[in-house]
């Protein structure tokens, strides 16, 4: 039976990198007779401009009909002055994640040996790095109510948000984390701020309680400030990290830099049935949009994750990942991962090289 994939190019470098992913998916679809139907939709600033809202009703219907969604990135200075709830990030991205209940965000940080010198840390600290950050994605402070900006009793404006998790939300993400750890190195580090925040005191208590069901998993707890430090000091001590929405947002970007570039990192956001949305970890990079120099590999690797986790096509995902390794072996690099001695290529040349490697 055919599978439906919805591609949402979004803003900034989104359309450029989506074009390259499209090439790769068209190639594997044909090469391996996958019978995938592709459709494109509007989200973010592009949707505001063309349809009047960051997440139009039509896109919501397309999302529901799709077996998996591949989203590039949203946002940019053009829409930063809109009221927060209408902006591409809150009105588009956060809305999709929450309406589809994509609560489980998997963010691998793998250092390709070919890029060891692109990392900001010494090669011996990062070579062989393979961390997976499991980030809760639909709760916590990014969604908590009440929130807003108001004038207080003294006539002074104040901004406020609510950091809240209930125990069901913690158990749901805890289960993803423990089960993921079971399939990997069986080490799980739960990151919180339980010395200060009640919400994470509850988080720690529930994760500790759940560990009784996973006796093979070695569980540890770490405060987020220490975790940030340890990620830079000795990143290979980690296998799987589980944390809430905001801490996960920050730590996964730090982990991204250990691997050389945020342009290399894919992510998966899954619902309880395994249906998912797949995105590169980076944003819309307005500083380089339209220049043809963005790295498309994070989105291409996100497509591979999609084939593996939502479409049950793991062997084809392996082929795409092998093709990415092959282009890195050839010394091809976009500007963000370029180092002396390698060959600098454009977004389009990188996409073409992955397609060529698939054909071999
Ligand atoms: P960013 O990830 O867009 O960019 C950070 C830096 O990384 C920039 O120097 C950029 O040029 C570089 N970079 C990012 N992706 C790259 C790629 N594929 N190839 C080469 N270089 C790349 O983060 P930011 O600058 O904080 O945010 C820019 C916009 O993106 C904002 O509007 C923000 O709200 C939005 N944003 C969207 C998402 C998303 O769609 N998931 C995530 C983060 C930020």
List keywords for this structure.
alpha/beta, 360 residues, two-stranded antiparallel sheet, 12 helices, 10-stranded mixed sheet, binds nicotinamide-adenine-dinucleotide
Report the order of strands and helices.
Answer: EHEHHEHEHEEEHEHEHEHEEHHEEH
C-alpha geometry = globular
| Parts with pLDDT < 50 across at least 5 consecutive residues | none
| Individual helix count | 12
Query: Which value, in Å, is the CA radius of gyration?
Result: 20 Å
Number of E-state strands? 14
State the end-to-end CA separation. Answer: 28 Å
Describe the 3D structure.
- With 360 residues, the protein is an alpha/beta fold.
- It is built from 12 helices and 14 strands.
- The strands form 3 sheets. The protein has a 10-stranded mixed β-sheet, sandwiched between helices. It has a two-stranded antiparallel ribbon with strand order 6-7. A two-stranded parallel ribbon has the order 13-14.
- β8 (187-192), α7 and β9 (218-223) form a beta-alpha-beta unit.
- The longest helix is centred in the first third of the chain and has 18 residues, at 14-31.
- Residues 13, 73-76, 89, 93, 262-263, 279, 282-288, 294-295, 298, 336 line the site of nicotinamide-adenine-dinucleotide (NAD).
Summarize this entry quickly.
By secondary structure, the protein is α/β, with parallel strands linked by helices. It has twelve helices and 14 strands. Bound molecules: nicotinamide-adenine-dinucleotide.
Map the helices and strands.
Elements: E1 3-10, H1 14-31, E2 36-40, H2 45-51, H3 57-65, E3 68-73, H4 88-99, E4 104-110, H5 123-126, E5 130-136, E6 148-151, E7 157-160, H6 167-183, E8 187-192, H7 198-210, E9 218-223, H8 224-233, E10 240-243, H9 245-258, E11 266-270, E12 276-280, H10 297-309, H11 314-329, E13 332-333, E14 343-344, H12 347-359
Helix pairs in contact: 1-10, 1-12, 6-7, 8-9, 10-11, 11-12
This protein binds nicotinamide-adenine-dinucleotide.
Residues 13, 73-76, 89, 93, 262-263, 279, 282-288, 294-295, 298, 336 line the site of nicotinamide-adenine-dinucleotide.
């Amino acid at each position: 039976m055919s599978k439906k994939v919805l591609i949402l190019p979004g803003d900034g470098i989104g359309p450029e990198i989506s074009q390259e992913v499209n090439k790769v998916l068209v190639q594997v679809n044909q090469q391996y007779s996958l019978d995938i139907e592709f459709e494109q939709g509007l989200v973010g600033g592009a949707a505001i401009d063309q349809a009047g809202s960051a997440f139009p009703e039509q896109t919501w219907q397309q999302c529901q009909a799709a077996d998996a969604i591949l989203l590039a990135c949203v946002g940019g200075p053009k829409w930063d002055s809109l009221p927060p709830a209408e902006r591409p990030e809150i009105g588009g991205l956060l809305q999709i994640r929450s309406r589809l209940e994509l609560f489980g965000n998997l963010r691998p940080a793998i250092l390709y040996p070919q890029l060891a010198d692109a990392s900001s840390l010494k090669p011996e600290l990062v070579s062989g790095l393979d961390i997976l950050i499991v980030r809760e994605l639909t709760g916590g402070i990014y969604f908590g109510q009440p929130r807003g900006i108001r004038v207080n009793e003294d006539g002074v404006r104040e901004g406020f948000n609510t950091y809240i998790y209930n125990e069901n939300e913690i158990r749901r993400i805890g289960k993803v984390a423990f089960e993921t750890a079971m399939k990997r190195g069986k080490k799980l580090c739960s990151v919180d701020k339980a010395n200060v925040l009640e919400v994470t005191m509850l988080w720690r208590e529930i994760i500790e309680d759940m560990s009784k069901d996973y006796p093979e998993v070695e569980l540890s707890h770490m405060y987020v400030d220490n975790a940030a430090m340890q990620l830079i000091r000795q990143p290979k001590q980690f296998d799987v990290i589980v944390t809430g929405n905001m801490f996960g947002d920050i730590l996964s970007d730090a982990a991204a830099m250990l691997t050389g570039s945020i342009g290399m990192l894919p992510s998966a956001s899954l619902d309880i049935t395994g249906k998912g949305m797949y995105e590169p970890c980076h944003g819309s990079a307005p500083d380089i949009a339209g220049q043809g120099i963005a790295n498309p590999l994070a989105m291409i690797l996100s497509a591979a994750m999609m084939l593996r986790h939502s479409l049950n096509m793991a062997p084809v995902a392996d082929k795409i990942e092998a093709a990415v390794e092959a282009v890195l072996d050839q010394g091809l690099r976009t500007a963000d991962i370029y180092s002396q001695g390698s060959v600098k290529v454009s977004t389009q040349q990188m996409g073409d090289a992955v397609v060529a490697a698939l054909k071999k």
